[in-house]
Structures are given as structure tokens and as C-alpha cells.
Amino acid sequence: MSANHSLTYLDNGTLKLGVDTTWGGAIVYLSVSGSGTNLINRYDAGRLVQQSYYGAGQYVNCGWGLNPVQGGDMYNNPSGIIEHYNTGELIYVKSRPLDWCLQNDATACIMENWYRLKDNTVKVTARFSHNESSMGLIRDQELPAIFTPSSLDRFTRYSGTDPFASGGITTNTPGYPNELHYQSEGWGTHLDAGGIGLGWYTPNVYYSTNYMYVGAGSTGEYGDRTAYSAPLYRFALAPGSVYQYEYYLIIGTAEDVRATAYHYNVRTASSWNFDFAGDREGWSLSSHADGSGPHNGIWSMNPPVGTSFVLVSPPVTIPASRNLVQIRLSNATGATSLTISWQRSGKQELHGGVFSNSVTIPIANDGQFATYTCDMSGVASWTGLIQSIKLSINPTIASSFSSFDIDWFRIRSEAGSAPVISNVEAEAPCGYFAVVSFNTDTAATARVEYGPDFAYGFHSPDNINLSCTHQVYLSGLQSGQTYHYRVRTREAGGHETVSSDHTFTTPVRVKVKQWEFEQAGNLEGWSFQHQVTGVVTGGALVLTSTGNDPYVWSPDLLSVIDPSRFRYIRIRLKNSTSDKVARFFFITDADPAWNAVKSIAFTISANDADYKEYAVDMAANSNWTGTIRRFRFDPFGTTGIMLIDWIQITD
């Protein structure tokens, strides 16, 4: 690992967690407190414990297409981060991942992670915003990717037919390439010869891919040899969609890991209302037939003529005691039936989207909304825990237009009542994220609507994992802003409660230095140093590059004496070139020489029509210490124009 890597830590006296703010906020260190023995492999940007997804296309230099990876790319370029905060109890990181197969190519996606420690467990909330324009295929996604040292070569799980009943477990050492494992309790381990190591639990996910890679023979946390696992669920990356899931990392024995899974033993809601514009609520579509997703409370699909398609639910764990399947829909595709398929616990399906259990119900082909109910109590294979749902449509209409619209979909029992909400609170530790907490009297879901007024306008992803205690993370906030919010929660079958309005105010961001470029001709102390000309006009510093290595200097003697607090250089700019990477260099009073060791690269959007704001965490470089004297901006690597609205150094 390069000396330029910077880690931020949590330590609760039982575990020590290290998050790398250079490699996209991925987990690079996890040990028993005080032991110094790292259970994470950090050989390169593709190892670690991190988010990774597979989208559209196929590149010529690897076996897949779009692959946003939290740590960086296959050339070991780091993804870097956009925002980071460590409260001492919670680490938040936000990054723009690189595409694994391409060279230093930032995707349009955003990854966010919230890390907390409790006893011997790390709880991670992972959020992925897919802002690419192309629709992906339904395929295996890693939830998450987990790499450990090769000494942790005992892979343990329960794969039997009676989950959560303390049945016997299976242990083996997988080979290379990948082996597929079925873990019907949702957990797995990487253990050493003594039966101790790192385990994981990803609720509602029951398959994993695993291997042992021997590599060139080097071992340990920086070794080429590694053990790998990734809990898998199949879904498609849809443009504009936001995906969120939770997972747990546990240090201990297989029994310790299993105890964590048994303690949480997550069950999910089984109702989806599609109330929010563009929000498919975790469902995948097998073809690009729905435009931009739900609108005005209806998910409208216009499949190509005669083209069959399927909808696949997010990962779920639904007791079969919920036996009434209901869907409100309008059908004008020519199809006269809808097939509902499911996978269930204890019955290992052939991997690859096989659903061996199904019922088919008749539906009208009249373009009118109607509610259809199927009582599953008499269906022999509707038993145990339902793990995935698929809806299949086979249009037959021969006209130029067909439509299939869903109002809502529910799997419920006869019992159930709306949750009672209590103890609603919000905490905003910094200017750009907040945590909303509340309780419900029955196990229920959690979602928060929020915004600058009573119209709200924003919402968190719907957490369908049922609980009585809830924490919802809000991000992308503005500093010094009062937000209105309300919580929305529903019990398993769909009975919903919405709270009254509440407010919180984010802290004001402290700016230790600021350049606004409001006065025409006033450079505010900035100077053009190499292959660049510029002028302040129209409220912006307009830079014109004349070569492939342009850079400008800030004023000298900035005297930023608390760089651990004032860690961000924030810049609002419009990039009119095709470049995707810029860089800040800095010098200190103690080390006034310009060099790449004291620099941070960050990704920028190419060919912008509008201004965008970027927050560059300079403390991700361990040399951001002492007294910061000056910094240098290298805007891009080709000729062209960039407009800078303002630059700030802030907390």
C-alpha cells in the first residue's frame, strides 16, 4: 500500500476497523483490538471489503462491461472519496467509483457507506446510486466483495433444508476459479486452522461465490494469495435507481458468526406501493421497457411487441404464513395470465435465476385497473421462508403499443395493523449527512421523506428489513440548512403509518479560506504558472489550457494551521473538456517543495453543461499536516476551457 493512503479508524475495545479514504472508503483493516493482526487482504484496489456491481455492456479487455468498484480500477488507480466523516462511533464515506476494466475512468455512479461497531460485529449500510444511462442485465451482484488473507481458508456455512434450527454446518476449502455455495441462513466464514477468523452475514441473501487464489505465493494482508467470498443476489442496474443493503462482519468462530445471524434473523416486508417517482423499490426488469420507472404512483411498462419480460423482487425473507398474494394492475399487452414464481429456503435452486415454484393466475386484457388475489395456503411449495419473487408476463399483442401497469404488489396475512411511531429524533453531526431514528411498536420498515419545506421532495431508500428500532441515513445535505422530515413505516403486509412533520438543522460549514471570483479582473491572488491563461469575468475564473500540463497557484502564506479539521478543498466548476480527473497539490511550511507525494487526484464530470460542486478530502493524504502554506490546482490534461465559480478550504 502506498504511503499516500490514509486510514480512519473506529475502535470499541473489541474490534478495530480501518477505512481507507484513498481507496473509496473501502474496509482495509479489521482486527481484534490491540492484536495488530489484520483479517482483510489489501494487496490492491480490487481486494478489500467493498461494494462492486456489474452493469451494461462488455469491454474488449475483460469478460464484463460496466463494473463500478469502490476501491479503484485494475490498474490500481484509487477511486478516492467525495465526503468523509468520523464521529468516533460512526464512519460515513461517499465516493465516485472507477470502472474496474478501464484506466482511471470514473463512473457516473455514487457509493456511500455507513460503518458502526457493536461488540465483535461491524454493521455496514451500503448505498449505491446508479446514474449511468444504460440498462444492465439481471446478473449476479456482490453484496459485498470480501477478501481476506489466504490463511483464512476454511469456508463454513449452513446449507441444509431447515434454516435457523441449529442444524449441522459444512466446512471446506474452495479451489480456483469460483465455487458456488448455498447458505440457507445467509452467513459464511473465512477461518484459520484454529477455527477463528472473519465471518459475514448478509440478510436475505442465500448464495455466495468463493475461491482460494494462490497467486505468486506471497501471503498476509498485503499478499497476492487471498481468500474471497461474495454473497450474491441477481438484479439489474437500472438508470437512476438507488440500491441499499446491510451486511455484518464478525470476528470469531463459526458459532459466533451463526449467533449473529440468529440474533438478527432478519425478516422483510412484502409490500411495494411504488409511490415515489423513479423509485422501483429494488425490483429489477429484464428489459428496458419501463422508461424511468414509477410515476404518479404507477409503474408503467411498455414492453416491445410480443416480448416476454420478468420483474424480480429485491432480496427478501418472507414467512409462508403470509399467504395472500395480491397485485393491482392494468394489462393491455395481449397476455391473459400472470405467472408468480418464488424461491424458498431449504430448497436449493440451480443458480442463474431458476424459480421452480410458481402459480399462474388469469388477468384481464382490457387496460383497466383491477386487484387480483391468489390464496397460497393450498399451494404445497409455498412453505418455509420465501427468498425471492418473480413476476412473468408474456405479451401477445400485435399492435405497435402495449402496456402493463402496476399500482401495488403485496404478500400478506389476514392479521396486521398500522405501526405506532414513537421517539422520532434526528442528529446532523456535519453539514452533509444526518441520522433519523425512531421506534415502532411492531416490526416495520423505515423510510424518511425530507426537504427544505413541507413538500419534502427527497426520500431515503426503502429499508424493507423489519425492525422495531430504526436508523435512517440521509445524505447530500446542505450545511446551515433547516430540513423538514417525516418518517414512513409499514408492517409486513403493508399497513402504513406516516408521522407528523419534524425539523432538524445541519451545522454551518466553517470556511477558513475562500475565493469567490465575483469582481471582474480580480484574480484574488491566484497566478497562472504553466500552459494556462485566465481571466475573471461573469462571476467565474475562466481557465484556458494551452497544453497537457496546465496548473495555477493559490496565494502564498495561507497559514492553515489546523489541517486535521480543515481537511476539504471544495470547488464549484464547469468542465468543458472531455477530461475526467483533476488534482490538487499542496506545500507546507515544513516541506515547501512541490511533488506528487503531496497531492490528491479527484474525478470530475466531463463536458458539463452546468456547474458541479466537488469536495476533495485532502486529509486522505497523510502529508496534509502542520501548516498548509499554498496549494496548486491542475485542472485537466488537454487543451480546453474550465470555469471556476468558487474555491474554499473548509471543515
Mind explaining what this structure looks like?
By secondary structure, the protein is mainly beta. It folds into 4 domains: 7-264, Beta-galactosidase, Chain A, domain 5, CATH 2.70.98.10; 271-412, Jelly Rolls, CATH 2.60.120; 421-505, Immunoglobulins (Immunoglobulin-like); 512-650, Sandwich (Jelly Rolls), CATH 2.60.120. 2% of the residues lie in helices and 47% in strands. The strands form 9 sheets. The chain has a 9-stranded antiparallel sheet with strand order 6-7-9-10-19-16-15-12-13, with helices on one face. Strands 31, 32, 33, 34, 35, 36 and 37 form a 7-stranded antiparallel sheet that branches. It is globular. The model has no long low-confidence stretch (mean pLDDT 92).
Which descriptors apply to this entry?
651 residues; mainly beta; Beta-galactosidase, Chain A, domain 5; Jelly Rolls; Immunoglobulin-like; 4 domains; 7-stranded antiparallel β-sheet; globular
CATH class of the largest domain reads Mainly Beta
Biggest sheet features:
9 strands, antiparallel
Ranges with pLDDT <50 over ≥5 residues?
none
- Residue share in β-strands: over 45%
**Rg over alpha carbons:** 26 Å
Rough outline: globular
Distance between the termini: 27 Å
Instruction: Tell me the domain tally.
Output: 4
The total of beta strands comes to 48
Give the class from helix and strand content and strand pairing. Answer: mainly beta
Topology:
Layout: E1 7-11, E2 15-20, E3 26-32, E4 49-52, E5 68-69, E6 83-86, E7 90-95, E8 98-99, E9 110-118, E10 121-130, E11 139-149, E12 154-157, E13 170-172, E14 179-182, E15 187-191, E16 197-201, E17 207-213, E18 226-235, E19 241-252, H1 254-264, E20 271-272, E21 284-285, E22 299-301, E23 309-312, E24 318-319, E25 324-332, E26 337-344, E27 357-362, E28 370-375, E29 385-393, E30 403-412, E31 421-427, E32 433-451, E33 458-459, E34 463-475, E35 482-490, E36 496-498, E37 502-505, E38 511-515, E39 527-530, E40 532-537, E41 540-545, E42 551-553, E43 568-575, E44 581-588, E45 599-603, E46 612-617, E47 628-634, E48 640-650
Antiparallel strand pairs: 1-2, 2-3, 4-11, 5-8, 6-7, 7-9, 9-10, 10-19, 11-18, 12-13, 12-15, 14-17, 15-16, 16-19, 17-18, 20-30, 21-23, 22-30, 23-29, 24-29, 25-28, 25-30, 26-27, 26-29, 31-32, 32-33, 32-34, 32-35, 35-36, 35-37, 38-48, 39-42, 40-41, 41-48, 42-47, 43-46, 43-48, 44-45, 44-47
